[in-house]
Amino acid sequence: MSSAGARILVVDDTPANLKLLVDVLEAVGYTASGASNGTDALAMIAAQPPDLVLLDIMMPGMSGYEVCERIRANPDTALLPVVLCTSLDPQQERVKGIEAGADDFLTKPINRPELMARVKSLLRIKALQDEVKAQAAELARWNHTLETRVDEQVEQIEKLGRLKGFFAAQIADVILADGARLLETHRREIAVVFLDIRGFTAFTDAAEPEEVMDFLAQYHERMGRTVLEYGGTLERFAGDAIMVFFNDPVPIDEPAAQAVRMALAMQAGFPELQAPWGKRGYDLDLGCGVAQGYATLGMIGFEGRRDYAAIGNVTNLAARLCGEAAGGQVLVDRKVMACVEDAVEAEPVGQLELKGYQQPVPAFAISAWRG
């Protein structure tokens, strides 16, 4: 809707004021009508909602505040632009008007250029609102038409949407073929990668919350793309901690090798992510732990929100190795090292005393992939 020809309702109990405003608005091309009290105004709005209301505050019976409140209380007119006109104390009346839901204010006697400027501005906003509502209605019609044509595909589409939230796209496509069986609780040997940020606690203490959220968005986006690239199953994002596993729900060849290659790729990409934050004085780095072993896997959660999870000692071991890793380091356990030793550059870091483990755990730091 353009502002030309817009319908404007003027509400004023003084006949001279009412006629003057109607005449002024019609002279510049608007379609103006008048009401001398709040009751008539509400009836006219209900019969044919205008595009804007110029509303006097001081009227007998129902005040302009009450009219405005009723306009806002009606879902059909909740967004209808309302300009309050007053000859009283502007500051005091503005506060009351804002509480009643007014969009703008004019002080009597009304200045014509100011009136036209405010009317034009609010009509422009109204036009944008109408356009959005029309687009939403059109989109709803398209969606309804689409639903009638693809009902037989809805279940599969919903499954794919859920799966791609935590699987690589290529894995999600495979799962669709036999998803129910693959997602049942089962036990399997997997390779688990756990990573988190060194210096993150100090960063959150020193940085503004908006900076922390900005960094996490960049970090999750960068790491998430790497997970998808290597075909991992993303178990969770938890702040700066990320857990990924391989060989489930779809078995793959050499899961330990794939896990290590992904961890090295993440380490290789992290300096570029960290560099701008380092210039701001934040010392951030990435630690990674990789372990291989058996876990119980399956869906957990409740109706409306379910996750695919791995539970077992191997996930704890990967997390503990990550906790011991220095910034830029990838620590792996003995099983992973046995699977990749011919393809990597690595050195032993000795027997690590890990929380929750009675015996020291041999660990190795992998620095490069030679394969």
The H-and-E topology, N to C, reads as: EHEHEHEHEHHHHEHHEEHEEHEHEE
- The CATH architecture designation of the largest domain is 2-Layer Sandwich
SS content category: alpha/beta
Shape: elongated
Spans of 5+ residues with little confidence (pLDDT < 50)? none
- The tally of domains stands at 2
Residue-averaged pLDDT: 87
Specify the number of helices. Answer: 13
CATH superfamily of the largest domain: Nucleotide cyclase, GGDEF domain
Strand content is 25-35%
CATH class of the largest domain: Alpha Beta
CATH topology of the largest domain: Alpha-Beta Plaits
**Strand segment count:** 13
The Cα radius of gyration reads 32 Å
Largest sheet: 8 strands, mixed
Helix percent band: 40-55%
Termini separation comes to: 64 Å
Short description:
The chain is built from 13 helices and 13 strands.
Describe the overall structure.
- This protein has two domains: 7-144, Response regulator (Rossmann fold, 3-Layer(aba) Sandwich), CATH 3.40.50; 163-369, Nucleotide cyclase, GGDEF domain (Alpha-Beta Plaits), CATH 3.30.70.1230.
- Helix content is 48%, strand content 26%.
- The protein has 13 helices and 13 strands.
- The strands form two sheets. Strands 6, 7, 8, 9, 10, 11, 12 and 13 form an eight-stranded mixed sheet that branches.
